[in-house]
């Protein structure tokens, strides 16, 4: 069965993330082996995988709340600090609640 459509979460990833996923699968999910391939420590690879998981989750949420997904994506990619991201999301949600009651 050929894949006609690339899933949205996959299309949202950059080439580096996709290459990491390929290596991860080819290594049967062994983070230790991936660490050796990249020449980094196991915790570094674990952190990379955790960020990748966050990106995928954010991508899945973006259809429902694109603004929140954007803020989370900026925080995951270290373009925005986590505390500022939390404040922006909280204010956005507060504004949405107020709109519902108007």
The count of strands amounts to 0
% residues in beta strands: under 5%
Distance between the ends: 50 Å
Taken in chain order, the helices and strands follow as HHHHHH
The class by helix and strand makeup works out as mainly alpha
Domains counted in the coordinates: how many? 2
Spatial shape: elongated
Q: Could you report the average pLDDT, rounded to the nearest whole number?
A: 85
Note the main sheet: none
Commentary on this structure:
By secondary structure, this protein is an all-alpha fold. It has 2 domains: 9-61, no CATH class; 62-102. 73% of the residues lie in helices and 0% in strands. The protein has 6 helices and no strands. It has helices at residues 8-11, 15-26, 31-38, 42-61, 66-76, 82-100.
Write a brief structural summary.
With 102 residues, the protein is mainly α. The chain has helices spanning 8-11, 15-26, 31-38, 42-61, 66-76, 82-100.
Explain the layout of strands and helices.
Layout: H1 8-11, H2 15-26, H3 31-38, H4 42-61, H5 66-76, H6 82-100
Helix pairs in contact: 3-4, 4-5, 5-6
